[in-house]
Structure formats: structure tokens, C-alpha cells
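hey so u asked for the seq, here:
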Amino acid sequence: MLPQQTPYTASPDEVRPEMQPPVAQRQVGPEYNEQFIETLAHRLMPRLMPEIMYNLRSVEPERSRNRAFGMSLALAIVSVVVMIPLTAIVVGVLADSIVGGIVPALIGLSIVGLVVLIINVWYNYVLFFAKK
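ran it, C-alpha cells below
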């Protein structure tokens, strides 16, 4: 069985007056809140304005860069799609010809692939590195 415990009572020396709630919990009028917000905005705007302006300036080039990446991706997809029938044509024609065989077909395929690669590299160079 547990022994009975006496409840703790504070001595008169320990009794403190009731504490006031923090500033954020105090009831204040709407004019004080508006004045506080206005003062805070006036103090923070000079500090934040350069960063805001920098972010606004950097948004526009990012859009054009995303467009350039999209155009580059489109060219790469079109190149792959065009290479499929070109591969079939080159291998089919050169493999069945009198002079042909598999070696001339692979050489012709390499030339076509190299031309497509050069077109892609040139387009991306102009798109991303050419001075405007």
C-alpha cells in the first residue's frame, strides 16, 4: 500500500504575483497591429528589395533557357526518328548492291550518322553559345 502524501503548498514567501502573458498574446487594438506591420515593412523593404529585384531579373533568362533546352531535345528526338529509316535505306541499298556487302553498308551508315551528329552539335552550339 502506498503511503499517503500531503499535497504541496507554497509558503507565503514563494507566492508570486500572476505573470502577464507574452506580448504576442496580449489583446491589442487593430491600429497597433497595423502600425507594427507598417513599421516592420518599412524596415525590411530596403533589405529585401535587392534580392527581390535580382530574382525578378533572373526569371526571364531562365524561361528562354528552358525553351532552348526544349528545342534541343526536340532536335535530338527528330534526329533519332530520321535515323531509323535512313539506316534501313543505307543498309538495304548497299548490302544488296553489286559493289556492296556489309562493310560498305556500315561505312555509309557511319557517314549518315556523322552528318546527323554534326547537325545536332552545330545547332546546339548556335543555340547555347552564339552571342546574341
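The mean pLDDT is 76. The helical segments are 30-96, 102-129.
lmk if thats what u needed
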